[in-house]
Amino acid sequence: MTASTTFEKWHQARTRLAWALLLPAATLVLVQLPVHAGSTSFERFFGSYKGMSTSVPEGETSRRELSIAIKPYENGFIIEAETRMHKTNKRVKRVQTSISFRPTRRKNIYESAMRRDLFGHAVPLDPLKGDPFVWATVSGNNLTVYAVRITDNGAQDMQIDKRTLTPQGMDLDFTRFHDTDPIRRLTGVLKKVGGVPPKAPPDKDSVFEPES
After folding, report:
1. Spatial distance between the Cα atoms of 52 and 46, rounded to a whole number of angstroms
2. Which among 171, 199, 197, 198 has a CA at the least distance from the CA of 48?
3. Is residue 33 over pLDDT 90?
């Protein structure tokens, strides 16, 4: 047996030993990978939710019916919401909103796409023109939507709409500010229900919470 033959057999034996040691470790790593490793952070919010909310503007309390659907839209998601407010004269006021969001270069921050530019691309609205600028963030079980608008006198009109997942559905916590002063607070409990309502048309004028 020559020296080269001996070396070749030794090299083959060493290679087989290395694979024998590596394969169990590689299998263990694959088994321990999270099941949702390929999913995005907002997918856990997909579904339809219904419930009631209580609004407290300046000491007055009113109840509203809420329906919310969160579903995939292109490479992001879309939030469709409907609010029914029951008036004292038995009239029912209905407000619908539909806002789509897409990922940004910053993790878990999503920009809204509420209008089309000259090239047909969906882009955010312009707050300097009196439109609301809207974006969303995801942190754990919280999906928060922010909307900022510049008023005619240059002040800031801002609302923060926080949705938190629960075993039954989600909790809603909404606050509207004029500059730094809170002017409306709305809380609600929504249950997850089957089915997804039809897509509502985008309505930039109804993005902000109605006064009454």
Report:
1. 19
2. 197
3. no
CA dihedral 8, 14, 16, 19 (to 10 degrees): -140
In tens, the pLDDT along 43-70 reads: 999 999 999 988 776 555 567 899 999 9
Compute how many other C-beta atoms are within 10 angstroms of the C-beta atom of residue 169.
Answer: 20
pTM for the model: 0.68
Cβ atoms of 77 and 101 within 8 Å: the answer is yes
Strand partners, 161: 145, 174
Q: Phi then psi for 203, rounded to 5 degrees?
A: -140, 95
Q: Write a three-state SS string for the chain.
A: CCHHHHHHHHHHHHHHHHHHHHHHHHHHHHHCCCCCCCCCCCHHHCEEEEEEEEEECCCCCEEEEEEEEEEEECCEEEEEEEEEEECCCCCEEEEEEEEEEEECCCCCEEEECCEECCCCCEECCCHHHCCCEEEEEEECCEEEEEEEEECCCCCEEEEEEEEEECCCEEEEEEEEEECCEEEEEEEEEEEEECCCCCCCCCCHHHCCCCCC
Residues 8/13/14/16 CA torsion (nearest 10 deg): 130
Residues 137-161 have pLDDT tens digits of 999 999 999 999 888 888 888 999 9
CA distance to 92, 191, 195, per residue, from 50 (Å)? 17, 5, 11
Confidence of residue 9 (pLDDT cuts 50, 70, 90): low
